[in-house]
Amino acid sequence: MRKTLLIAVGMSVLALTTAQAQKLTGAGATFPYPIYSKWFSEYSAAHPGVEINYQSIGSGGGIRQATSGLVDFGATDGPMTDEQIAGSKVKLVHLPTVMGAVVPIFNVTGVHDLKFAPDVLADIYLGKITSWNDARITKDNPGVNLPNETINVVHRSDGSGTTYIFSDYLSKVSKDWASGPGKGTALNWPKGIGGKGNENVAGLVRQLPGAIGYVELIYALQNKISFGEVKNSAGNWVKASIAGVTEAAASVKQIPTDYRVSITNAPGAQAYPISSFTWLLVPVKSQDAAKGKVLKDFLNWMLNSGQSEVSNLYYAPLPKTVVDKEQSTINNLQ
Description:
Elements: H1 2-20, E1 23-28, H2 33-46, E2 51-56, H3 59-67, E3 73-76, H4 82-87, E4 92-107, E5 115-116, H5 118-126, H6 135-140, E6 152-156, H7 161-173, H8 175-179, E7 193-195, H9 197-207, E8 211-216, H10 217-222, E9 229-231, E10 237-238, H11 242-249, E11 275-283, H12 289-304, H13 320-331
Parallel strand pairs: 1-2, 1-3, 5-9, 6-7, 6-8
Antiparallel strand pairs: 3-11, 4-8, 4-11, 9-10
Helix pairs in contact: 12-13
C-alpha cells in the first residue's frame, strides 16, 4: 500500500510538472529589456519547464503583435491609444512593471558634463540649434569648453516607447515641438539619423563625433556614454536617478483604472523630468488557459519578488499604491 501511495504521489507530481511546463512568448519595448531579461531568466530557473521568450523589437512592434494575438503578451513604454485599444483583436490590460528615465546622451569632443534646458533639447531635435558652441548651450554651461562642432542628431528608426516618452516630454515643454512632430512612438523627424532600439542609438552616439541621442538610463551606463542634466519644472538641474524617477511618480495622486498615465515634466524639486512607467500588455482572458495561469503567476512574482531587483539595473520600483491596485487587476485575469 505504501508503494502504491508513493507511485500515486509521484504521478501527481509528474502531472503537475507537465501541466506547468509552458513556453510563453512576448515582444515589445527595448527600454525595460535589461530587467525583463533578468526576470524571465530567474522565473524560468525557479519554475522548471517554463520558458519565457521575449523579443526586444520596440514598443510599436509589441503593440502590433499583442493586438493581433500573435504573442502571449506585449510590452510598451508608450500606452496604447484609444484607437489602438478599440481596434485590438484581443482585450488587453496595461500593467505597469517598473519606472525608468530617458536621458540625453552625447559625444562631444573633450566634454563629459553638460546641462540641457528643455527648450534647447527641443530646438536641437527641431534643427534650430546646429552647433555645440551655440550661445544657448554655452549660456547654460559656463566654464565648459564647447567646440565648434556640428550636432549630429540621432533618433529611433523603429516604433519606440522611448521615443514616445521623449516626445511626450518635448511636447510639454515646447510649443513648436507640440505643433510640429508632436508625441508618438514613431515620428516624422525634422532631422537626424535613426537607429533601431536603444542599443543601436547608444552605439551610433558612441561612434559618431558630435552626436546626441536619447536612451533609457541603463543603456547609457552600460555603454559608458556621457549623459546630461536636464532642467526640471521646478527650475533645478537634475541628473537621472532612481530617486528622481520616484519623485516624478509621486506627483500622481491617483492612478487611472487603465494605468495609462504620464509622469514626464512632473513637479517636484528633484523630480527627473523625462521619467515614465513602462507596461506589459496582457490579455484579460488568455486564449490558452494553461498559459494564462503561468502568466498570471509570473505577474504575481514580478510584483512580490521582482520589484526588489529593479534598482540594481537603475530602474525605479513601482510605488506601493500602484502595486496594491495592480494586484487586484492581476487577480481578475483569466
